[in-house]
Amino acid sequence: MKRVALGLIIAVGLLPGSLAAQAVTGTILGTVTDSTGALIPGATITLTHAGTGLTRTVVSDAAGEYTAPSLPTGKYTVTAELSGFKTVAQPDVDLGVDQRVRINVRLEIGTVSETITITGQSPLVQIASSELGTTVSEEQIKTLPLNGRNFVNLTRTVPGVVRGIPGANIDGAGSLAWRASASFSANGQRPRDNNYMLDGIDNNETWLQTVVLFPSVDALDEFKLQTSTYSAEFGRSLGGVVNLQIKSGSNARHGSLFEFLRNDAFDANNYFNN
User: Fold this and answer.
1) Closest by alpha carbon to 109, among 88, 133, 92?
2) Can you say how many angstroms the Cα of residue 66 is from the centroid of all Cα atoms in its chain?
3) Engineered SS bond to 203: which of 31, 135, 178, 196, CB 3.0-4.6 Å?
4) Please, which residues have CB within 8 angstroms of residue 245's CB and are 6 or more apart in sequence?
């Protein structure tokens, strides 16, 4: 009996612990300097989410560096302040899913009550990460032509991505004709080598490695398709990594209404009808 109890204790100890969902947030980081380029430690950096009002406060270290990891995606205002210097604020910093956005801050001598607002856009090139990929924004999802309201069709707007094998099961044909297509090829890899994630959780069907859940495009905040040099938290596949981000709430009431109508009355006139 003691051996059985000991065996159970060992077995329980070997069970993996729970893991938090991965790659559903982003990171804002940067360096704080003065007008001469000297590094400034001890500056207070406040990051405010435009949609929810969420704030995160960090302090620059001895090397003038600051890092704010695990931030919800969305637009932020980055504010830096330190006694003896003017307050600097940079609004409209767009943080996407699994992105590392570098916002460097330059403080000028003055009083804290004086505020410098930076109106320039945050950099489009992600110099803080070596990953190769593209984020498809909510605006693109809403405005680009989308046959069948299937988000997978938007993956073909990413460099290096083409449609997969036409007529295959994963393309919504054959035994899976009742499903939407999940077929695309990234950098020449097979469609079944792609990896789908929904809010950081595995979203892969185990038979043909297609998508389990196709969320409504109205529910998508954005999605990121990585095609090469993935970071350490991604694996399992040789193709593209699709990370879908579902919309979250905000301080304002909002909703959407749509109608999707498709029939012969709106089709172009067929040549053989003439």
Assistant:
1) 88
2) 21
3) 196
4) 24, 73, 97, 199, 220, 221, 222, 223, 224
Residue 105 has phi, psi (to 5 degrees) of -120, 135
Token pair 């109608």 is found at 259
Place of tokens 């001598």: 109
Would 236 be classed as within a structural domain? yes
In which residue ranges of the chain is pLDDT below 70?
A: 1-23, 112-115, 118-131, 167-169, 171-178, 235, 260, 262, 274
Structural domain tally of the chain?
2
Distance separating alpha carbons of residues 209 and 242, to the nearest angstrom:
13
Co-location of 80 and 113 in the same domain: yes
Q: Write down the pLDDT at residue 21.
A: 44
* Distances in whole angstroms, Cα of residue 160 to Cα of each of 170, 189, 199: 19, 10, 24
CA 114 to chain centre: 35
Distance (Å, rounded) from C-alpha 24 to C-alpha 99? 9
Q: Cα(1)–Cα(3) distance, rounded to whole angstroms? A: 5
The domain that holds 101 is classified in CATH as 2.60.40.10
Q: Which pLDDT value is given to residue 17?
A: 47
Last-in-domain residue among 84, 117, 150: 117
At 141, which CATH number? 2.170.130.10
Please give the Cα distance from 158 to 165 (Å, whole number). Answer: 18
Q: Show the beta-strand stretches assigned E in 127-182.
A: 132-136, 161-163
200: left (phi over 0), alpha (psi -120 to 50) or beta: left
Q: Which domain holds residue 193?
A: 132-246
| Same-domain pairing of 142 and 62 | no
